[in-house]
Design a protein that fits this description.
With 314 residues, the protein is of the alpha+beta class. The protein contains six helices and 21 strands. It has a single domain, classed as 4-Layer Sandwich (Double-stranded beta-helix), CATH 3.60.130. The strands form five sheets. Strands 1, 2, 3, 4, 5, 9, 18 and 20 form an eight-stranded mixed sheet that branches. The chain has a four-stranded antiparallel sheet with strand order 8-19-10-17. Strands 16-11-13-21 form a four-stranded antiparallel sheet.
Amino acid sequence: MHHMDFKVSPLPGNPAFGAIVTELTPEAIQNQHVRQQLLDLFTDKGVIVFKGLAELDTQISLSEIYGEPEIHPLLVGIERPREHFVIAEIDYVEEDGDLYELNGELRGGFLPWHFDLAYMEKINRGGILRAAVVPNSGGETGFIDGIAAYDALPDDLKQRIEDLHVIYRYSADSSTARFGEIPEKCLSLSHNISFALEHPSVRNPVTHPMVYAQKESGRKVLNISPWHAIAIEEMENDEGDALLRDVIDRMIRPEMAYIHDWVEDDMILWDNWRMLHSARGVPPGEKRKMRRTTIAGDYALGRRLDREHAEPLR
């Protein structure tokens, strides 16, 4: 599809969601009409790969179309020089990085399927990720669309989960996750991650609805973040766990995912109220450096539970 101002193509091998934008210039981003087109595309497609645009200023001005860039809540209070105050630096270097074993393979900087801040009441609107240093191998980022995932569920499951909520709790080490893609073991965690564990905002569990409707279109979104999920609020028992596991396993099937192989200066925008993402990790000797903005906002459906880190009832 060719707008006057930029070109839109589908993600390779994935017609269900997402788009690639090319031929967009930094000047055009300032145009109100172009901004509206980019906003509509985001609402429609959920994830946009921008090619040939990557610069700090462009990343920030694009982010501003979708909301107010903010400091990632878990970075607030970490005093260290950053390229720009709204940019989080996501680096994997062997000396200080998360290292996991997954399916017998070592993966540096691996993050399993999740949406951001599931363990907080307010989940951010989205983010834009930019590749600064691309590794020689590995380092892909995966995306799964909650709208496409909901549509793929059988009707009886859709009915069962309609009014249920999932309980989430922050956990840095994804090998301790209860659901989704769980590494066999964690060999090291970066300093930043360990700092986040002490953060006051992650002490209480929270809940988010399993299903909600996208405001602009009425399309139903399967709204589950596997990594931090603990239980179904209304069914904290084996039956609930089995139901949650079944839905998550359907959601994260490989054919539901778009896996992006980064080229230097690619940028990707995603809707955190709709998309799961995952960092697939790199072989330990590789370096990978990403820069991301966090776009503020709140869909106002999260709720804090009035209990500290209670273990789920079993």
